[in-house]
Design goal:
Length: 433
């Protein structure tokens, strides 16, 4: 189902002229209300009037996470505090948290975009949505909550943690959809099994999963264990929160970017050069309707690719490929670039391994080392040592063949690696530079 038929299916030319109009407005507004933008635009020698076409966007300087930190906490707000009705902060995965604000209209827009996401997942007012994203400063919980209410669905405001209770509620209330991180979906599946519950017989039809990178094989694992469709949702607090883009049930490949509210570009992360659609690079977003905290050309550090082919669902928005990782997540092991999600894909393709792994990066002398710790399944673990050695060899070989990296491997007993309630932290980097 399409929540906002009119806007989600606008012909491209109409959509693009709407984008241009909104872009011109936002650039005018930030130039006149936010000191940071006025300074950087003056330095770059561009004026808001120079934006005559969408292509002119690239004349404007980027905004980075560092700029947000330098203006901590409210320096980039474009409205007086009396118009701000909500504050959130990023989870601070990579350093000091960044603060974002919303006007009443911003909360309204966000709610609609999340409602669009739920509708894209096939949900409507008859559904019960179990929301296990964390409530609080993190945008996940409240973002999904308001969207579910906007759709008219019944929302269970579970928040994260307290896994046993979550499972109880999943059984008793019979939600048809769940929102959480993909790693938490697995944690729930596993904890349920341990409690002797058949997790495939719950009423869940669909999972709206995001907030961290995950692989296609992980999707299958979740779908099998919880007997539901697992869809990918993307967002970041700086740009809005969850609901910047979302997969649809029809396409199930790539997330539709809500382009009537955001302009997306991909750039070469090293040179800043704008890449043609289809090429893999860093995502850059411009918000074109936000009031309290507009962001122009924000470098997300998330690596993805834009898909322009039309989708069979009828939405005219471009899609973005699942995020393979953050550019600052990328591991450089003896000069080879590798993302944790690539290692995950290799591991998941090997029989007998569980979707729980950890990557330990260290430096011995001048050499980087990578150790992959991964859990093996119960029946394999009790198997003879020869079988285990075979798996270990296979992992080393596949990682070398597919990714070009030499790794040490440590097979772990089932259920011994850390489990996560929110975003998984799979990399332990012990290198000190
Ligand atoms: P923080 O940067 O502190 O983690 P957020 O909680 O706003 O702040 O997280 C946003 C980030 O989460 C995104 O920039 C991206 O790296 C990651 N993310 C969100 N959704 C997805 C997704 N579906 N796939 C991959 N990564 C995602
Ligand atoms: Zn679609």
């Amino acid at each position: 189902m399409i929540f906002n038929e009119e806007f989600e299916t606008l012909p491209r030319e109409v959509l693009e002229s709407l984008q241009l109009k909104r872009l011109q407005q936002v650039v005018q507004r930030v130039y006149h209300t936010v000191g940071f933008y006025r300074r950087t635009y003056d330095e770059a020698g561009v004026k808001p009037e120079d934006i005559k076409s969408l292509a002119d966007l690239r004349r404007l300087p980027f905004t980075t996470k560092q700029d947000l930190r330098d203006n901590y906490p409210f320096g980039l707000f474009a409205v007086p505090m009396s118009n701000v009705v909500r504050l959130h902060a990023s989870s601070g995965t990579t350093g000091r948290a960044t603060v974002v604000g919303y006007t009443k209209r911003d909360v309204d827009t966000w709610s609609e975009l999340m409602a669009r996401c739920f509708a894209a997942a096939g949900l409507n007012k008859n559904d019960i949505i179990h929301n296990a994203y964390g409530y609080g400063l993190f945008t996940g919980g409240l973002g999904a909550h308001y969207g579910a209410e906007r759709l008219g669905a019944s929302v269970i405001p579970m928040s994260g943690g307290n896994t046993k209770r979550q499972i109880q509620i999943l059984q008793d209330f019979g939600p048809t959809a769940i929102c959480c991180t993909p790693s938490y979906a697995l944690t729930l599946a596993e904890a349920g099994e341990e409690m002797g519950i058949d997790m495939s017989s719950l009423k869940l039809r669909v999972g709206i999963l995001g907030a961290e990178p995950w692989s296609e094989t992980m999707r299958q694992e979740i779908e099998n264990k919880l007997n539901m469709m697992a869809l990918n949702i993307y967002g970041l607090s700086e740009v809005m929160g969850p609901g910047v883009s979302m997969e649809c049930t029809e396409g199930r490949h790539g997330m539709h970017v809500f382009e009537d509210h955001f302009i997306v570009e991909t750039i070469n992360p090293d040179t800043g050069e704008v890449l043609p659609p289809g090429e893999t690079g860093e995502l850059v977003f411009t918000t074109i309707t936000k009031e309290a905290f507009p962001l122009v050309r924000y470098r997300t550090r998330d690596i993805s690719r834009i898909i322009t082919e039309p989708c069979r669902c009828g939405r005219t928005y471009v899609r973005m490929e699942r995020v393979s990782g953050r550019s600052d997540d990328m591991l450089i092991i003896r000069g080879v670039n590798v993302f944790p999600s690539q290692i995950e894909s290799v591991l998941m393709a090997i029989e007998g391994l569980e979707p729980h792994y950890q990557l330990i990066v260290d430096r011995v002398g001048t050499l980087d080392t990578l150790e992959i710790r991964v859990e093996v399944s119960e029946n394999i673990f009790s198997d003879e040592i020869k079988g285990l050695q075979g798996i270990e060899r296979r992992i080393k070989k596949d990682v070398k063949d597919y990714l070009g990296v030499t790794a040490g491997v440590k097979l772990c007993e089932p259920k011994t690696l850390q489990r996560f309630e929110g975003k998984a932290q799979r990399v332990i980097d012990k290198r000190t530079i």
